[in-house]
Amino acid sequence: MSSSDAPRFLLTNDDGIDSPGFRALYDALSELGEVVAVAPADDQSAVGRKLSGRVEVREHELGYAIVGTPADCAIAGLESLCPDVDMVVAGCNKGANIGAYVLGRSGTVSAAVEAAFFGVPAMAVSLYVPGGSGDDWRSKASDPSDYRAAAEATRYLAEHAEDAGVFDEADYLNVNAPWGGEQEPTGMEVTRPSTLYDMTAERDGDHVNLIDRTWDRMLTGDIPDPVGTDRRAVVEGRISVSPLTAPHTTRHHDALDGLADEYEPREA
């Protein structure tokens, strides 16, 4: 960030504008500069980059509450409501957004991705709340103070990352902090998304239950993730920062090139 002028942040999330994690980041970033909230009016978790096309805008004490998705918020904010921001920050999400398979599902991450396509530096910030695959985690992290470690890491990165040249290489940062009650994180680690995928589906009469067993494995420490991955860092008590790019990567290889060369369209 430029030292001559205070930075301006667009803050969004997917848990909703009145969530405790959102307030924690609002207060932390307000120590650096101006924060304009452009966030969903209600919970929009796990909607990915879903777009609404047309959204209602409501005045809010922190900025604007949008009846729409996180991606809606990023676009509405950057193109209309506060187009002159220096950075977009999404979070703090209640629940980790770690692992390659989660990135496309997460509304929090999707807001950062949307900002990256606009060429605006962005961060997605989440808090790992232990609880397994059940609902135990929902009763935890209910106060802004529970997000202190995540908020401090966000403030630090927001203050220093751009001037350090981080966004010359990364389009956005995916930040995940561990929550351990009184236990503080032991440090910050640059990571890559884990490739562990452990979804299962169980038939229950006329329904099928979709279960992500990864959360139970994290609770017991039974994870194969190697050192350097986001999940390993968080489970071991470190703040994970993954520098990511927004466009999908393309890998050319001989097998597909050969198929394309040999393709002959059928005659009508």
Automatic annotation (TrEMBL):
Binds 1 divalent metal cation per subunit. It is an enzyme of class 3 (hydrolase). GO terms for molecular function: 5'-nucleotidase activity; metal ion binding; nucleotide binding. It catalyses: a ribonucleoside 5'-phosphate + H2O = a ribonucleoside + phosphate. Coiled coil: none annotated. Residues 10-194 form the Survival protein SurE-like phosphatase/nucleotidase domain. The keyword Transport does not apply. The keyword Nucleotide-binding applies. InterPro entries: SurE, SurE-like_Pase/nucleotidase, SurE-like_sf. HAMAP family: SurE. Nucleotidase that shows phosphatase activity on nucleoside 5'-monophosphates. Belongs to the SurE nucleotidase family. This is 5'-nucleotidase SurE. It comes from Halobaculum marinum. The gene is surE.
